[in-house]
Design goal:
Length: 125
């Protein structure tokens, strides 16, 4: 194997590694986004159910394995803040997803182009 072929092999390997990493990161970020969406939906649904209660209703909040009494206004405020926090988390994760999608597309294009050039070089002689 010539040095040129070894260099090409290393470049192909590096591009494949970059593509695999980008694909893995895209999947990871998408899973995180889905998790945040579920958490936001749960907070919103809980808040909707709590809004039907009178303000003087005794409510409890789960803390680990126990429940702690929490005034209804504080509980609804906490749930609203949690939903807002999930929105900001999802926006940041969406930016990460776009970044990794771009890296993945770039790596796919580079790898395809390199393989095409290698095939053309092999057919030329």
């Amino acid at each position: 194997m010539s040095i040129n072929e070894q260099a090409l092999g290393k470049i192909v390997h590096d591009l494949q590694t970059k593509l695999q990493e980008a694909s893995r990161m895209v999947a990871s970020v998408q899973a995180q986004i889905q998790s945040r969406e579920r958490e936001k939906r749960l907070s919103e649904l809980t808040n909707k159910e709590l809004s039907a209660l009178t303000p003087d209703t005794v409510t409890y909040k789960s803390v680990g394995k126990m429940f702690v009494q929490e005034p209804l206004p504080e509980l609804t405020k906490e749930l609203t803040e949690r939903a807002t926090e999930m929105d900001s988390d999802m926006a940041a994760l969406e930016k990460k997803r776009i970044y990794w999608e771009r890296n993945k597309t770039e790596a796919q294009g580079n790898l395809g182009e390199l393989i095409k050039q290698i095939q053309q070089a092999q057919q030329a002689p």
